[in-house]
Amino acid sequence: MSRAIHNALIYTVLNLAQKALGFLVLPLYLWFLSPEEYGLVSYYMTLSVTIGVFFHMGLNATIVRFFFDQRASDEPGYHKKLYGTLLTVYVGISIIFSLIFFLGKSWIVFPFINIAEKTPYYEIALLFVVAFPYFEFYQRILQARQEGQKFAKITFLYFILQITLSIVLLVVFKLGALSLLIGRAGVELLFAGYSIYKIIREYGFAFDREIFRSTIRYSAPLIPNNFAGNFNNFANNYLVNQFINLASVGLLTVATQATNLLNSLNTGLTDAIRPWCYEKLSSNDVNQRDIYFRKMHSLMSAFSLLIAVTIFFSEEAFYLILKEQYWETWKLMPYLGCYALFNQLTSIWLIPLMYYEKGSKYVPVSTYLFIIINLGMCVFLIPRIGLVATAIAMMVSRIISSLVLLHYCRKLSGVKIKIFDFYGTPLILVLCSFLVHLSDMSLTLRLLIWAGLTVFLIIWHRNELKEFVGTFQPILKRFT
Fold first, then answer.
1. Is the pTM of this model over 0.90?
2. Residue 248: CB partners within 8 Å, gap ≥ 6?
3. Residues 52, 133 contacting (CB under 8 angstroms)
């Protein structure tokens, strides 16, 4: 566990640094970009991520999972066969779908784009789509081998180069919305080349039929799930542009980027805990599974305190760092803060589910339910209450979909998980979100309510918070 926690600190600090730096340069981007231009960037980035599902076909989930397969301990050279086979499949998929989405763009993609600006925005976004799976492939290999420091160095360099190139293109060459798209695609191509070189050097090309069949069998049920999850973000942008305008897409993107700061904690934890969790599950020890859920409960309790700050003080933060054109986005943050908290709960249930082959078949049920509820609420509420409807819809749909994952997680893990232990505090924070948004409270009143709520949560979760501090204390001593 200590190695997993050590990696958790590395991944969490890395993700926080990335998202914090990204949010710090956001005012610079927004100074040179109008809400419409920033909405254009977001529109094509969410479109590219949606298309990107076809370029890995769910096989990215197998990179870590099959590293811990039984064959790894029984068969010499298994990892070389595994990653060599996956690389061969990746290259084949890239060639096929690059041709399909480039040559067939006028029939497959353009009819579903409800904005006038298409070329060259789409083509640049497609370059990112082609390159990204290879960089992700190599980074997941590092995660499977629990090489957290190497992962962090490469990822941070990637991020710094991406920001630097985007700023130069935006400020010096004044390319507008194209600056952010070119910056991301250019750096992605560079690191894709590096990743392919490293994978070939360490594992080479190979093709093992049994590995191919088992990985496809595992990943196939995840393809609709991955596509649907990414499509949801594009659909949100599509509906906001359809019912309001492209500028509102830009406002929504600013709010979701702020939420990504919170989600980065979740991402770092998930990346580090996944290998450790798979090791515990492979032992078939119910007590080890129970330890996992207890640790996650303590982490969620600490995360809840951060979400409370987001709910009560996002208005002042947005007024301080953003241009007036973007101020109204704070109204989305109370709901998106709770959405981030329920995202963490979703990850807690998802990690064990992804270990079991049966579990991967249950994941799409939750995703489809999330999308149906989210898009249904957006279609109904956006024309009536405006942009804030998207945040409310995301929060409500995530609550329901996480409960579905909890049901399947309890069923497969055999651990008796108490629902109120995990959902009591988040639901209190949901009520606070509506209170802050719908009432016109002064800063003083919000400070008082927040202080009272924080004291209450600390007392209520005192045992979990002690365990949280105790979990990280040995690792923190090593850094200090």
1. no
2. 35, 39, 240, 241, 387
3. yes
